[in-house]
Amino acid sequence: MLGSLMRLLSTCWCPPGRSSTGGDIDDDGQEGLLWFRDIGQCAGGDFSMAVVQANQVLEDQSQIESGPFGTFVGVYDGHGGPDAARYVCDHLFRNFREISSVSGSVTSDEIRRAFLATEEGFIALVSQLWNSRPHLATTGSCCLVGFISQGTLFVANIGDSRAVLGRKIGSTSGIAAIQLSTEHNANVEAVRQELKAQHPDDPQIVVFRHGVWRVKGIIQVSRSIGDAYMKFAQYNREPINEKFRISEPLKMPIMTANPAILCHSIQTSDSFLIFASDGLWEHLSNEKAVEIVHNHPHAGSAKKLIKAALQEAARKREMRYADLKRIDKKVRRHFHDDITVIIIFLNHDLLAKGFAQMSTLSVRSALEH
């Protein structure tokens, strides 16, 4: 039973150089710990995709699903291990399609239901494997989703990944950076206030530790899929690692999988969308990232953003980028996080025509590299 369950977690993964459509991918590439798809086309326009590994096991996962229904983009930044992010990549889009197909349209409520259904499924897996794999209770994933259909963009987020829009400024050559996602990280004052309001009797709901604010002194993000130990008392006990155990009784969930959702009508001045895990934004501002994408060709743009972030990470440590690239995974985590970037270059002619004739596309980042 355990073997079949774990195979379920990995059946959706395509090795570098293959897509789930079954065809060879000429544009996939790999440079050490950096995997990339320089250019491709989805129902929303061109896309570029890249991920660099820093952890011993890659904890970021991502996907693009596209076809007559529109374009779905997912960036899943795991923590505590890769299990939750892998589960989300296998199930969130599937739940989204099942829920939205009933009504034939997409609303914020249906996206929210897809998130919560995925959460429910992962918590059920935690329960089923509690005796053999209790550490699953301490794994979780931030989730950033973009969905483009019929001239409308939905952005849904839990955690601290980020979506940024590049918008042309009038008839000039300038470009503006507009953040579309709401982040749920205890280092944001509004998030700390939200947690304090939800837990008025807990003076330790947020604690400043190791230079950052953390929920219960443990984790920075306040929303995720997974992290069962922060939501249900039956998982906040032995045999999970002592550092995750909360001394006082867990009377109500501390974290939630309820996403913040934005609905945006796409304008002709909207040029491109950047979806990235927080590893990118730790080193690049919204404005810098948008400027880099705007000033370079579409092909290889996601890879270019990751390299710019790595160059900045090296500069902060007073080392050369070439030397940083030689550092192997696990040790590399001391210099930067796993980083995932997906860029969608909006094709307004394609968006105006609709997606009825689009073939189905399914691309996912490598499981591990």
TrEMBL record:
Looking at its record, which EC class is this enzyme?
A: hydrolase
Keyword annotations: Hydrolase, Magnesium, Manganese, Metal-binding, Protein phosphatase
Occurrences of domain PPM-type phosphatase (ranges)? 46-346
* Superkingdom as given in the UniProt entry: Eukaryota
**Would I find Manganese among this entry's keywords?**
yes
Q: Name one Pfam family in it.
A: PP2C
Q: What is its EC number?
A: 3.1.3.16
CDD domains in the record = PP2Cc (cd00143)
Q: Does the keyword Hydrolase apply?
A: yes
Question: What are this entry's molecular-function GO terms?
Answer: metal ion binding; protein serine/threonine phosphatase activity
Q: What SMART domains does its record include?
A: PP2Cc
Q: Which cofactor does it need?
A: Mn(2+); Mg(2+)
Q: What's its catalytic activity?
A: O-phospho-L-threonyl-[protein] + H2O = L-threonyl-[protein] + phosphate; O-phospho-L-seryl-[protein] + H2O = L-seryl-[protein] + phosphate
Q: Which PANTHER family does its entry note? A: PROTEIN PHOSPHATASE (PTHR47992)
Give the family, as the similarity comment puts it.
Belongs to the PP2C family.
Protein name per the record: protein-serine/threonine phosphatase
- From which organism does this entry originate? Dendrobium catenatum
